[in-house]
Amino acid sequence: MQDILKDLFIKNDKKIVLLVLDGVGGLPREKGGKTELETAKTPNIDVLACEGECGLHLPIGFGITPGSAPGHLALFGYQPTDYPIGRGVVAALGIGFPIQAGDVAARVNFATRDEEGRITDRRAGRIPTEKCAELCQLLSSVSIPGVELFIQPVKDYRAVVIFRGEGLSDKVEDTDPQATGVKPRDPQASSTKGEKTARIAAQFISQALELLKDGQPANALLMRGFAELPHIPSMRERFGLDSVALAVYPDYKGVSRLVGMDIVEDLEDLDAQAAALRENWDRYTFFFVHHKYTDSKGEDGDFEAKVGEIEKVDHFVPRILELKPDVLLITGDHSTPAVMRAHSAHPVPFILNAANLRPDATTEFGERSCAKGTWGVIPGAKLMPLALAAAEKLAKFGA
Amino acid sequence: MQDILKDLFIKNDKKIVLLVLDGVGGLPREKGGKTELETAKTPNIDVLACEGECGLHLPIGFGITPGSAPGHLALFGYQPTDYPIGRGVVAALGIGFPIQAGDVAARVNFATRDEEGRITDRRAGRIPTEKCAELCQLLSSVSIPGVELFIQPVKDYRAVVIFRGEGLSDKVEDTDPQATGVKPRDPQASSTKGEKTARIAAQFISQALELLKDGQPANALLMRGFAELPHIPSMRERFGLDSVALAVYPDYKGVSRLVGMDIVEDLEDLDAQAAALRENWDRYTFFFVHHKYTDSKGEDGDFEAKVGEIEKVDHFVPRILELKPDVLLITGDHSTPAVMRAHSAHPVPFILNAANLRPDATTEFGERSCAKGTWGVIPGAKLMPLALAAAEKLAKFGA
Prior knowledge:
2 copies of one chain form a homodimer.
Chain A: H1 2-5, E1 16-21, H2 36-39, H3 43-51, E2 53-58, H4 68-75, H5 87-94, E3 104-113, E4 119-121, H6 129-139, E5 148-155, E6 158-164, H7 195-212, E7 220-227, H8 235-239, E8 243-246, H9 250-258, E9 262-263, H10 270-280, E10 286-291, H11 293-299, H12 303-321, E11 327-331, E12 348-354, H13 367-370, E13 377-379, H14 383-390, E14 396-397
Helix pairs in contact in A: 4-9, 10-12, 11-12
């Protein structure tokens, strides 16, 4: 299916807004109760549900709990299983590092070794993030001719290193032996393409060990998940869209960058996002507006606070509507039920609002009300073709 | 899915009728209003909805607006994206030309050239269809040994040429340079298989230019979209069906021919179609009955007239029922909302009526009533397996 879209896109000025309430899907807190979304008062969004077509989507597939990056890829119209993202790139995107085509990223774990160089603790006693940041600062003095090097803390003992230069490749195997009592492996190329990068990684490790040598417990490092940016055709190539991301958090800017979106920087909150939407309205045809805190409150297990975040987004919706978008798609990238304190595999409600639609029986934004909508349960990556069709951006297939 | 059907089919005498209301899906004309189909009084079809299983289908895929040929291929059980149909064949089918396996069809545009042979207008001043028909008549005197040649007007400056003979191939590139101020390209084979056809096309062009030389503004021609009939296994091969098309319009006979259906010619209206259905009842196991005017009125933007056409089909339905078909499938090949005056990507309602089904909540033929049916939204090409199963024409898969 997806391949034919590329041949059908029509450039026009109609504007699509994708409003994502991160992790919006939820669960009732008690038997017979309502979910967070069903509890929230969302009068503005409910009007859009009345006028629009509704359903549930599965970002990745049946039973699959989406990570943030693949959840968003699906919403951008890319079946996530067709575009696997390596661990190093996930880490780089996760901290908002602006990784570029040709870069190679790898996860780094700080570790402890004994005098013979054997690993005694693969996590360096789980040093805190602040310590990790200090060590990254220390390692930023590593210098390798012809290569630009970035090393950044992720969380606890985890960091990420990015190599930038000519002729790099992710065809390098992990140095992490996945066991204690043995030495780390040397970086080995898994194919000839990876040989240069393996040599560079070896130089990096050698200099790093020198810098870390008195740094008990973090006197060693292990590398894993060498990865390049996957080759993802941009939203302009695939859909003819000029797209922009209005997101507060770095992770979501990262995944937007992956599909070639422009990014508006330094947005602090929904107010700033509304202002940026207005300022950029004439420049783009696709606007991704992201609200993080529905997910954060779900992960905190704070049902009431998640309800509050949903209501904040509802208050924000009129600021989108006053710009008169041609198509407004409201949904989430996955579910984050407060009772589970984590992402979950539950399908995610959506509302598609545009002029030429068939309003269905759904009259409010909720998991079970949207389940009664026209679309039933559909793959997340199919929302984009529906939005494109509603914006009259797809030509007829065949005569 | 589709590949396994071929190994499962069971020959029996049960009869399936596929009744297509072309472009039946619609949209409300005002906020809160009903669609054409929801407005139409369809008491006969509503009874079938009460007794049957209902849903919506997507002929090609999410967001994709179907052309007539691929829309019908889907209804005949062929996923249209698996059977692309080239431009020349689309043109030939579109004018009802009985194209055969081995024929090569190409689109011809009449054009204007200057004294040096450079194209000055790729559309010959958009000559009217009548003029185009005259020119085709003139070119019918072109004679190439060993090849039968047909040239027919399509619309305005567009025509189609069909070459029939031994060893032809569509591996020939366009002669249209897609620009003015340059000469047309010579027909070039894109692989050795196309060399004979390229030579024939060159002879055709050479003779045609001689005939057109005083014919300003149409003193040249450009060829594009050389195409052979796609290799589509027949409905007999795939489903074991003896099938016949009862259609008024040539396009629908054309697409029926593509899947190996027999064609009843010279049907003028639903009365004639009803009579032909009765006459042919004992000879076939699959009957495709097509009504064009629901689509035509939609394309005219005439909501009321489309409602009227739907009601005409409802009056016709008892003439099918009196023959006691084992399975009756009523649907459309796409939507043509009067408010859009064009084909659209909206899903299409269907009713499957047969003995051993589970009647669902749907009690009338409509977009939103069928959306509440058992099947939700399914791919159009899956309707045929449902009909075959209801006619007990598919064996068990596995032990």
